[in-house]
């Protein structure tokens, strides 16, 4: 077989793989849509997070189906799902697990490690900002390194491993704001807003009747990990890479390319991890749509959830009523 024919065969195989996985992802997304009404953008961004191999921070008031979304995703994707309710008295061992002293049948005393709830494939960290910084940091290593260390011993977490954390944006009394280092570990910050009028009406009818839709398995962990590997192999054009680099750098107030509104309104901007997140997320969005490569439109769509938790307004900007989403919108204007 000639080199040209061999390249054509590889290209055809890659197209077929993208089509096959995109079709399975579409069925999985439809399965979630049947249970979670009125949150299609949230569902899409959550799927993008999982396909990119990352973690997401869901920010929204209570009652917007954040917990139900996680349990539904666990069923639909075939993942072992767990949940931790974060409270001020939660200890690191309540997350990672702890060693207990046991006596064997021969009378020997030995330590045995009892795994904590973090040992699952899809973890919901509910109201993560209610736990102390010490407890929050226990989740930091797990999110970044996919293992925990207890008494000097390393314990690997199941694969895949994803954290979907929730946060209430209104009630801040008795909370511990997440430090920038931990916020940066979240691939996306997904703002969960109120549903539209039609969606809320449909939700009321669906959830108060005698028959409520039940989530059904549509995917398995092996297929999800295959999709994650495929995301990293998708080609990305030079124009998209240039758009990502210029966007991230233009959001840093100390950068020479930053515009005056950025210098005047931002205390700090996104680091290189924001560019890495965008590179993965735009590929994941393309795969979710069944496309072979991402476009500038993907960068525009995903810039707000990727940048908003990696930037901070200064005091003057907050006093003037400036918002991060409005500032990001202005940064995206040259790409539109």
From TrEMBL:
Residue stretches making up the ATPase AAA-3 domain: 55-188
Organism superkingdom: Bacteria
Spans through the membrane: none
Name of the protein in its database record: MoxR family ATPase
Keyword ATP-binding included in the entry's annotation: yes
Upper taxonomic lineage: Bacteria, Pseudomonadati, Pseudomonadota, Alphaproteobacteria, Futianiales
Record family assignment: Belongs to the MoxR family.
GO MF annotations in UniProt: ATP binding; ATP hydrolysis activity
Coiled-coil ranges from the UniProt annotation: none
Short name of one Pfam family: AAA_3
Keywords of this entry: ATP-binding, Nucleotide-binding
Record InterPro entries: ATPase_AAA-3, CbbQ/NirQ/NorQ/GpvN, ChlI/MoxR_AAA_lid, P-loop_NTPase
Ranges where the ChlI/MoxR AAA lid domain occurs: 264-327
Gene3D superfamilies xrefs: Magnesium chelatase subunit I, C-Terminal domain, P-loop containing nucleotide triphosphate hydrolases
């Amino acid at each position: 077989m000639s080199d040209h024919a061999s390249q054509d065969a590889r290209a055809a195989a890659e197209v077929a793989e993208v089509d096959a996985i995109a079709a399975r992802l579409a069925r999985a997304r439809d399965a979630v849509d049947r249970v979670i009404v009125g949150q299609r953008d949230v569902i899409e961004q959550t799927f993008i997070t999982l396909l990119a191999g990352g973690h997401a921070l869901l920010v929204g008031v209570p009652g917007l189906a954040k917990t139900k979304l996680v349990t539904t995703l666990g069923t639909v994707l075939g993942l072992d799902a767990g949940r931790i309710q974060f409270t001020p008295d939660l200890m690191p061992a309540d997350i990672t697990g702890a060693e207990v002293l046991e006596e064997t049948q021969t009378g020997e005393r030995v330590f045995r490690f009892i795994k904590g709830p973090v040992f699952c494939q899809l973890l919901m960290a509910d109201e993560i900002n209610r736990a102390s910084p010490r407890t929050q940091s226990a989740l930091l290593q797990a999110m970044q390194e996919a293992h925990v260390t207890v008494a000097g011993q390393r314990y690997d977490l199941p694969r895949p491993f994803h954290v979907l954390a929730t946060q209430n944006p209104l009630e801040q009394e008795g909370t511990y704001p997440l430090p920038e280092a931990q916020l940066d570990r979240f691939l996306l910050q997904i703002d969960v807003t109120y549903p539209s009028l039609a969606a809320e009406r449909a939700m009321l009818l669906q959830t108060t009747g005698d028959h409520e839709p039940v989530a059904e398995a549509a995917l398995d962990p092996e297929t999800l990990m295959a999709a994650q590997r495929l995301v990293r192999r998708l080609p990305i054009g030079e124009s998209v890479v240039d758009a990502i680099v210029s966007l991230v750098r233009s959001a840093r107030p100390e950068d020479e390319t930053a515009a005056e509104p950025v210098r005047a309104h931002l205390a700090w901007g996104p680091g290189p991890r924001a560019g890495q997140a965008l590179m993965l997320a735009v590929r994941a969005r393309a795969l979710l749509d069944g496309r072979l490569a991402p476009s500038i439109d993907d960068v525009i769509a995903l810039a707000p959830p990727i940048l908003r938790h990696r930037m901070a307004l200064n005091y003057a900007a907050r006093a003037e009523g400036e918002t991060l989403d409005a500032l990001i919108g202005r940064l995206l204007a040259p790409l539109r």
